[in-house]
Design goal:
single chain, alpha/beta, Spore Coat Polysaccharide Biosynthesis Protein SpsA, Chain A, 12 helices, 8 strands
Length: 407
């Protein structure tokens, strides 16, 4: 039982702390033999780009998104804006078409009456893309001014097949714990992506902003939940590197409430298990080497192993403290560990209850969001087992009381 408990503890520690330390050390060692070269700006390199945005019933943010897209620092004649609004009933299709028909030659619109989901919209959009580079972005995010330039500069390297931008959460001091926790999570995630790219490749792009070579796009199964992850990992599996560009970022508001964030996290978790099953071949470390190592360490353990280790650690720890177990020299350690776990989860529960009352306590962010993410992962696994993996879903509401203003 002690060995089992130590193994589970080791997996959790490696997943959330150890991998970050290890990959930092590996990058430092690698830089001794092959120094990292800073990527230089080259404003003369401006390949034609199509910015694709799936926008189902996004009339509330389309005007701001269009303004943001058309103000990006990139030659207008080299940047196409393709909106896919199929199934929308809020007038967004007609509004965009009126702009196009009114002479805005930068805009293309793919409408239609049937709503088939985001993945189907992306597959459809790719049939109309004629540029060598395509960039995907969400309609409810804003990009920083040089986002496109900073993404495409990586494609001067023929070994680069895709580039992941950075997702940033725009939170205020009075935001909910879920939003603040989400922001902390993405800051750490961005750090890991930066190190992943420096070692070998990013293992999964954020759908809010990522670019790829158009010929490398493979049609995605319509029921796919994590299209961005599947697309980027398949490109990496085909021998191309997925780079990371923190200076190309999408700014997004946090979820409107903890219930909205829970809905989103469960869907992502279900998509994680779906992705693992569809990318089983990437577990072959003999063939994929560093990619397999990074994929397992950064994704598989976090999605499919660690969430289940946490309750097992608590139960195993409890079993070691039961009266029928003979005391060992490690008894004080196991007792302290158990008390620590109970206090940690109690803090998480208090944070959860206060969140519903819109009471924000910073000290509870870490235990609350850590526990929240892992509970959602387990619920996502149950959703995946039930087969509830439709590519059509109701998006989570986002806090929208502040206008996004990227630099």
């Amino acid at each position: 039982m002690q060995i089992f408990l130590l193994i589970c503890l080791g997996i959790v520690a490696y997943t959330y702390v150890g991998y970050g330390i290890l990959i930092t050390l590996l990058v430092k060692i690698r830089s001794l033999f092959k120094p990292l070269r800073p990527l230089e700006d080259d404003d003369a390199y401006t390949p034609a780009v199509t910015l694709v945005m799936a926008a189902y019933n996004e009339m509330g943010c389309l005007a701001a998104k269009l303004k943001n897209s058309q103000s990006l620092d990139y030659p207008t004649e080299k940047l196409r804006l393709l909106f896919v609004t199929e199934g929308s009933t809020d007038g967004s299709t007609a509004w965009l078409e009126s702009l196009r028909d009114g002479g805005d030659g930068q805009i293309d619109v793919l409408g239609g009456q049937e709503r088939a989901g985001k993945v189907a919209a992306m597959n459809r959009a790719m049939q109309h893309v004629r540029t060598p580079i395509v960039v995907f972005s969400d309609a409810n995010t804003h990009l920083n001014n040089r986002a496109i330039r900073n993404l495409v500069r990586h494609f001067r390297d023929e070994s680069v097949g895709a580039v992941a931008g950075e997702k940033r959460i725009d939170t205020l001091n009075n935001e909910s714990a879920a939003g603040s926790g989400e922001g902390l999570y993405w800051k750490y995630e961005s750090y890991l992506k930066r190190k992943d790219a420096q070692l070998h490749t990013v293992v999964g792009a954020a759908g809010e902003l990522f670019a790829l070579r158009t010929p490398l796009y493979e049609t995605v199964e319509p029921d796919t939940l994590l299209d961005d992850f599947i697309i980027s990992l398949r490109i990496a599996g085909n021998g191309y590197r997925v780079e990371y560009e923190p200076e190309a970022y999408a700014l997004e508001r946090p979820s409107f409430s903890i219930d909205e964030e829970k809905k989103r996290k469960i869907r992502i978790a279900a998509g994680g298990f779906q992705s693992i099953m569809r990318l089983l071949y990437l577990l072959n470390i003999v063939r994929y080497g560093w990619l397999s190592f990074q994929y397992v360490s950064h994704r598989v353990l976090r999605w499919a192993v660690t969430p289940f280790c946490l309750p097992l650690i608590w139960l195993a720890n409890l079993a070691l403290l039961l009266p029928m177990q003979p005391p060992t020299a490690l008894y004080p350690f196991w007792l302290a560990l158990f008390v620590g776990q109970c206090l940690f989860y109690a803090a998480a529960w208090v944070g959860y209850r206060l969140e519903h009352r819109q009471i924000r306590v910073k000290a509870l962010f870490v235990p609350f969001y850590f526990t929240f993410m892992n509970v959602c992962a387990i619920l996502g696994f149950l959703r995946y087992l039930r087969g509830n993996t439709s590519g059509i879903w109701e998006k989570a509401r986002r806090a929208d009381d502040v206008e996004l203003q990227p630099n």
